[in-house]
C-alpha cells in the first residue's frame, strides 16, 4: 500500500511508502485523498501526522508520470484537500521535502523537520515552476526574498534555516515521530491555514526588484527561471485563488515546453549510468583512498574525497612536494569552509583523515588508489608497477589520465582486473563530471565500486570505453577544431565566443582555452605532429600564438589580451589570423552567430556519433550528460544528441 493510516489515540498517522523517494505517484495521491476523507469523517481523530517511510519525505511529483496523460486526483487537488480538511494535518519531514513534497507539507497546518532534513522547490531545474501552490504558499510562510531565492534558484534549504525563515515550526531533537506526536497533542485546530496567512512582503521594494532582475539576467535563456520570478511576484500582489490559477497555467505551459523536456531528459540520463549492467557488481569498501600526485588534479581529487568523508593518503615524490601538496589540499578545504560547504567542526575532523607522504608504504592501507601524475605513459606504468607491490591484492588501482590507453596501464600489474580509469575534470572538487573508463579486463565489482565511489562524491558518472580522449575530450577536440576552422574561414575569436555565450554556454571556446592555458594543447599537438594526417585541414593559428609565448590568462595574453583580468580583443591576433588566411588563400566569409553555432553543434554531433558507433559511449544520453556536466552545454537545450533527435524528428515530420 502506497499510503496507510493508523490510529494513535486521537491522532491518525498517515504513512507514505513509495520507494525509492516517496514520489507523489497516482497511487500516493489517491491514498492521500482517501486518508483526508477518512480522518474528516472520524470525530475521534483530532490531528493527522503525515510522514514517509524509507530515506526521505516526498521528493516531488513522480517525474516518470510526466510523459503520460495526467490522472486524477491531480496534486493541486490533494494539496487543497489537506489544507481545507477539518482535521489539522502536521507534516513530519525527514530526508528531503522537494517540489510537490514540500507543497504537500505547506498545505499542512504545521511542519516539523528532522535536523538534517532539506526542503526545497527545485522545479526550475526541470524547466518547470511549482505546480501545486508552492509559489503561493511559500511567501505566506517565509519572507518574500527567501521565497524568491528558493523558487527561482531551485536549491533546498536545511531544517535550521527553514525554521528561522518560518517554513518549519520546529526542528525535532531525537525521534521525529515522537516529536510530531508531541506537536499533535498541542495542536488545537485553530492554527491558520497557510492560504489564510498574509503574504510576507519584501522588506525593501527596490532591493527585491534588483533581486528579481538579477535572477532573470542569470537565467541565460532558461524560461523556467523567469517564470518562477513572475510567479512569486504574482503571489505577492494577487488574491490567492487568482495566483494559484495563474501558477497552474504557467506550470502546464512549461511542462509542455521543449526546455522542460530537455531538462527532464538530462535529469534521467544522469541517473541512467548507474543502472548500467556493468555497475551491478558488488562494490568493494573504499573508505581509505590513496592519491598519487598532489598537483592541481591530485589535490582536487584528495579534497573531493575528504569532503565526502573518506580518508586520504597522498603520496608525492619527495618531502618538499608532499608538504606543498598538503598545503594545496588544505587551502581548498579552507575555501570550502569559507563557502559554508563544511562547518568548522567538519573542517577539523577532515584534517585528521588526511596525510601526505614522500613514500608509497602507507598505501598498504588503501582500498582504492588514484594516480594523478603528469600525462607520460612510461612514468604512469612505473607508478603502477610499484603500486602492484605495495598495495593490498584487492585494492583498486585507478588512473586519472585524460586520454592515455588505460589497457596499456593495466598491463603493468599482475592482476589487471583491478585497474580502472577515473577521469576527473578540473577543478576536481567542483566539477560534477567523472568519466569511469572501463578497460578490457576490469572486474565487474571494480566498475561497481567506481560507480559507488562516484555517487559518494556526488559526481555525475558516465562509463567510457578506452580510446584517445575517451568521450569528453574527444568531442571537445572536435568542436575546438571546428572553431579553429571558423576563425580561418572568417569569424574572429570574439564572434565565436559571443555566439556560444548567447547559445547558453557560460563561456566560449577561446575564452575557455585562455583560462585553461594554450600551452597544454600545444604540447599535445607537437607530440602528435609526426602522426598527424597530412591530408587533414590543420589550423596553425594557435601554434603561432604559443610560439609568441601567448599562453592565455597566465601570460596576460592568448586569444585575447588581458587588461585588469578582462579579455580584450587584440589587433595583433586579428593580424595573425588575417596573415594565416592570406597564406592559405582563404577569402574571409561573413559568419553570423547561428551559422557559427550550427557548425559547432554539428561538429559535436558527428564526433559523438562516432563515439557511439565505436561503443565508447553506451547511448546518446551519456553524450548529453558529458557535454552538459563537463563543458557547460546549456542543460535546458538537453545536449547535442537531444537536439539531434529533435532535429531528426522534425525532418521526419
Ligand atoms: N520522481 C520519480 N523518481 C524520482 C524522483 C521523482 N521526483 N526523484 C528521484 N527519483 C528516482 C531517481 O530517478 C532514482 O531512480 C532514484 O529516485 C534515486 O534518485 C507539482 C511537478 C530526491 C535529492 O526535482 O533531486 O514536484 O535510478 O539517484 O542522489 O510542483 O533524486 O534508482 O531507478 O537522485 O539520493 C520535483 C528530484 C519534481 C527532485 C535524491 N522534485 N530528485 O537524490 O538519489 S517536479 C525534484 C532529486 C514537482 C510539483 C512539481 C534526487 C533526490 P533509480 P537519485 P539521490
From TrEMBL:
In terms of CDD domains, this protein maps to: crotonase-like (cd06558)
- Chain ranges of the 3-hydroxyacyl-CoA dehydrogenase NAD binding domain: 288-463
Checking Pfam families in the record gives: 3HCDH, 3HCDH_N, ECH_1
Q: In which pathway does it act?
A: Lipid metabolism; fatty acid beta-oxidation
Q: Does the keyword Acetylation apply?
A: no
Predominant localisation class: other
Is Nucleotide-binding there in the keyword field?
no
Q: In the record, which residues are listed under signal peptide?
A: none
The GO molecular function terms of this record are: (3S)-3-hydroxyacyl-CoA dehydrogenase (NAD+) activity; enoyl-CoA hydratase activity; isomerase activity; NAD+ binding
Its domain of life reads Bacteria
Q: Where in the cell is it found?
A: Peroxisome
Tell me the InterPro entries matching this sequence.
3-OHacyl-CoA_DH_NAD-bd, 3HC_DH_C, 6-PGluconate_DH-like_C_sf, ClpP/crotonase-like_dom_sf, Enoyl-CoA_hydra/iso, NAD(P)-bd_dom_sf
Record-annotated 3-hydroxyacyl-CoA dehydrogenase C-terminal domain positions: 469-562
**GO biological process, alphabetically ordered:** fatty acid beta-oxidation
Assembly, in brief, is: Monomer.
| Matching PANTHER family | 3-HYDROXYACYL-COA DEHYROGENASE, PEROXISOMAL BIFUNCTIONAL ENZYME
Protein name (record)? 3-hydroxyacyl-CoA dehydrogenase
